[in-house]
Amino acid sequence: MSSEERLKTLDFEQMSAAEIAEAKRMLAKLSLPVQPLKTRRTAPSTLTARIDARRTLREAMRHGGELTTLKYKAPVTRWPNLVVLCDISGSMADYSRMVLHFVHAVANRKGQGWAKVHAFTFGTRLTNITRHLRARDVDAALKAAGSEAQDWSGGTRIGQSLHTFNRDWSRRVLGQGAVVLLITDGLDRDDAALLRHETERLHLSCRRLIWLNPLLRWTGFAPRAQGIRAILPHVDSFRAGHSIGSLEALGRAVSEPSDHGERDRLLAQIRG
């Protein structure tokens, strides 16, 4: 195994300072491509798959009602938004820094297809760091984001933070068939009923909700924590988020609606 392959599988929490520096360079090269969404709107097209009856008849009227040319139309496509909700509490600090390096690369790489990339951090409160990630220099961007997010490496209030997002931001950023990445270990001691309700509300507001959890790296992981049990039924895909390789594989969950990661297996444990 080459050093680069080894680094892809290494847990962010176990990396040395030199390995973290190299991992950041590798994360800067990663992309997160997405397929465009078809809309109900149509536009004139040279493709012959679908006849545009209205334009065809209008053209015929210009020639005395004689049907001489068929006109065609095709669905208009648009790009979805990407919304990232990243837990920066004490238990997630090592992972959130690396994930935000990846998010910065996605936000600043052209040609991936995302209409807009919005990013929020949360520990004990929700902070919008979208404008900071637009800075080209990743170190400057994350330093500014860290200065604004005063709850870095503190406690966790996932349910309350999702409530704030759903109340204040969901209508602004979840349009256009948005995909949401929720990055958290799910270790929340607040009201489980609130967390369950707000996660369900978030799920209903977006096209796809993907949960990245670094705890999933453990072979014997089981959904015992009440926060994990509250979130899991309301996500589309549940995947690990502890290494470069796990972030590299994220493209599959984004582009394939059939990809559920470990969700179904762990839901069976909860219900069984």
Overview of this protein structure:
- With 272 residues, this protein is an alpha/beta fold.
- It folds into 2 domains: 3-36 and 79-271, 3-Layer(aba) Sandwich (Rossmann fold); 41-77, no CATH class.
- It contains 13 helices and 8 strands.
- It has helices spanning 3-9, 17-27, 53-61, 93-108, 130-133, 138-148, 158-168, 170-173, 192-205, 226-231, 244-248, 250-255, 263-271, and strands spanning 37-45, 72-78, 82-87, 117-122, 126-128, 179-183, 208-212, 237-239.
- The strands form 2 sheets. It has a 6-stranded mixed sheet.
- Strand 7, helix 10 and strand 8 (237-239) form a beta-alpha-beta unit.
- The model has no long low-confidence stretch (mean pLDDT 90).
Annotate the secondary structure layout:
Layout (H helix, E strand, L loop, with lengths): L2 H7 L7 H11 L9 E9 L7 H9 L10 E7 L3 E6 L5 H16 L8 E6 L3 E3 L1 H4 L4 H11 L9 H11 L1 H4 L5 E5 L8 H14 L2 E5 L13 H6 L5 E3 L4 H5 L1 H6 L7 H9 L1
Parallel strand pairs: 3-4, 3-6, 6-7, 7-8
Antiparallel strand pairs: 1-2, 4-5
Helix pairs in contact: 2-4, 7-9
Q: Name the helix and strand elements from N-terminus to C-terminus, one letter apiece.
A: HHEHEEHEEHHHHEHEHEHHH
CATH architecture of the largest domain: 3-Layer(aba) Sandwich
Number of domains: 2
Question: Ranges with pLDDT <50 over ≥5 residues?
Answer: none
**Lateral arrangement of strands in the main beta sheet:** 5-4-3-6-7-8
Helix content: 40-55%
- What share of residues are in beta strands? 15-25%
What is the strand tally?
Answer: 8
